[in-house]
Amino acid sequence: MLTLLKLLKDGRFHSGQALGAALGVSRSAVWKQLQLLEAELGLSVHKVRGRGYQLASPLTLLDSAEIAEQAPSCDWPVLVFDSIDSTNAEALRTIERGKVAPFLVLAERQTSGRGRRGRKWASPFAENVYYSLVLRIEGGMRQLEGLSLVVGLAVMQTLRELGISDVGLKWPNDVLVGQKKIAGILLELVGDPADVCHVVLGVGINVNMQLTSEIDQEWTSMRLESGRAFDRNHLVAKLGGVLQVYLGRHQTDGFPAIQSEWEQNHLWQGRAVSLIAGVNQIDGEVLGIDSQGALRLRVDGVEKVFSGGELSLRLRDDS
Question: Model confidence at 38, in pLDDT bands (50, 70, 90)?
Fold first, then answer.
């Protein structure tokens, strides 16, 4: 099926006979594969008598060689999958198989993409970026302080360099345009964080997606914001270069050196918010973050600090 897709990706018409000859199958077998493309991958195929078959719009598929060529300073091996459960899950399995970090896992589609707090991450085929970078961390907890916020800054900066000028950050792991989510970060850790461990930097970016019924919150994409389609290979290469710079700063100088830059780009700085922790709600005003990336709130006139993967921040109606 994916071999057929690669023949059609140019967006031109191809006859059933020519496709069958290229695949070594009958025209009826081509027809069945086309039906699978539409049903399983959600792609639209135009069928015109006398002309053949054409994708509704051309596709650019992820290509590890092209990414490496556009990002020569990043020597991370790139593993590209047509379809997997999630890039973070595959990254964790690859660590278990003994592959040496750093390496990058990408996918055209995720069947079980996930965000923070167990939320589903919409992952249509060949539209967005599903990205998991694996790093080996030595030197203890200091190397992990504020790391997800550093990744968020790198994603934000990458999108700005590609023309999405209104993008900003929301604590702890969201990248927004206004109130709409355009990207998210999910970090997962294996090993001993006090000694040697591996961390998976999971990034999901809405790139060319224009419609979906799978998201239960306000969202947008690079295409919706700019009115044009983006080359995802170029985006991945650009993100790799920017991320490499931020990770280098973090490793050398620690998170405190990046703290103020993150606060300057926090869209909810000074806003009235509610912090949700399970069934509990804490109302306060965002003061910023501390040197480890925890959230600082003014609650009833007193500064309090909060951190943890299960916390959710929401704007209050009076903000």
Answer: confident
Give 4's contacts (C-beta < 8 A, 6+ positions apart). Answer: 19, 23, 30, 33, 34, 37
Looking at the structure, tell me whether residues 245 and 286 fall in a common domain.
no
Backbone CA torsion sign across 232, 238, 242, 243: positive
Q: Which of 5, 58, 61 is nearest to 33 (CA)?
A: 5
CA dihedral 212→213→217→219, nearest 10 degrees, is 10
pLDDT tier at 118, thresholds 50, 70, 90: low
Give residue 121's pLDDT. 62
Indicate whether 170 and 252 sit together in one domain.
yes
Range of the domain at 72: 64-264
Query: Are 281 and 210 in a shared domain?
Result: no
Q: Residue 184 carries which side chain, given as an amino acid letter?
A: G
Question: Does 148 share its domain with 23?
Answer: no
Positions annotated as catalytic residues are 116, 181, 314
Query: Does residue 253 sit in the same domain as residue 138?
Result: yes
